[in-house]
Structure formats: structure tokens, C-alpha cells
Amino acid sequence: MPGVPTAARAWIAHLEALGEQLRDGEPGRRHWHHARRYNALVEAVADLGDA
């Protein structure tokens, strides 16, 4: 996966950019992918809680 952040600040910036894309860009209009994105986000949050 190219461009994966390795530091906390980089992750924050990465997630902020993702949020912007979902609010204003094409990915947010592709509703058929929302469930997959949500599931991946929930798994990431659970992993963060376990870390």
C-alpha cells in the first residue's frame, strides 16, 4: 500500500484528507462502497483500541 503513514501526525493528516474526499469528492457519492469503508474503519478503530 503506497504512501501509508508511519507517524501519528501523518496518520491524522491522512485521515483528514480521507474525510474531505468522502464529504466533497467522488468517493462520497459512491454509496455502494459505504458499507465496506465503514467496516474497514470500524476494524481500524478496534485495532487502535487494542494497541
Oligomer: single chain
Please estimate the helix content: over 70%
- Helices and strands: which structural class? mainly alpha
Whole-number tally of structural domains: 1
Whole-number mean pLDDT: 85
Q: Measured on Cα atoms, how large is the radius of gyration?
A: 12 Å
Rounded to the nearest angstrom, the distance between the terminal CA atoms is 21 Å
Main sheet overview: none
What is the string of SSEs from the N terminus onward?
A: HHH
Spans of at least 5 consecutive residues whose pLDDT stays below 50 are none
- Figure out the total of helices: 3
The strand count comes to: 0
Q: What is the overall silhouette?
A: flat
What's the gist of this structure?
By secondary structure, this protein is mainly α. It has helices at residues 8-24, 26-29, 34-50. The protein has one domain.
What descriptors fit this protein?
51 residues; 3 helices; 0% strand
Q: Could you please describe the fold and organization of this structure?
A:
This protein is mainly alpha-helical and 51 residues long. 75% of the residues lie in helices and 0% in strands. The chain has one domain. The protein has helices at residues 8-24, 26-29, 34-50. It is built from 3 helices and no strands.
